[in-house]
């Protein structure tokens, strides 16, 4: 019964994922052949070039401080580092979810408690996995499409402000994902080890009798 339900859920997930992938590919096609977005990309790259040439750290028109060229390079380097760490963490979480899924269905249909335990652990790991995926993404032409009519130094300042906010979001997300997944995985492993130890003791006592 549980295996059949899991198969149906897996089929629904596969269908939804396929539709989402097709929609995303269609979205990429639209942006590929839409001239306005290519112009927006060119403006964004030119604005980044202005940031690389900045020599002073001073507030912009909105009161946000614009970094120097060196500070901007450090900002980009820190973003790359947190994105790389998030990618590694997401890989670990996907592996852990697969391992607990295999553990839950390793005992046959009669081990309902094991399946419930594995399902609970997987559900608890989904939120940290989602936050680690947030850490992988980067600001692109779609993300900053709400920049409006900004150009030149104003656009550069807006982009740098978005980068700083993006770094802050990714750092908070990575910290939550790392701490939450660490607690869940370590606790689950301890429960599995204690359960295995208890079963060994029961087998040993049964053999002694």
Automatic annotation (TrEMBL):
<keyword id="KW-1133">Transmembrane helix</keyword>
<protein>
    <submittedName>
        <fullName>Uncharacterized protein</fullName>
    </submittedName>
</protein>
<feature type="transmembrane region" description="Helical">
    <location>
        <begin position="176"/>
        <end position="197"/>
    </location>
</feature>
<feature type="transmembrane region" description="Helical">
    <location>
        <begin position="87"/>
        <end position="105"/>
    </location>
</feature>
<keyword id="KW-0812">Transmembrane</keyword>
<feature type="transmembrane region" description="Helical">
    <location>
        <begin position="117"/>
        <end position="136"/>
    </location>
</feature>
<keyword id="KW-0472">Membrane</keyword>
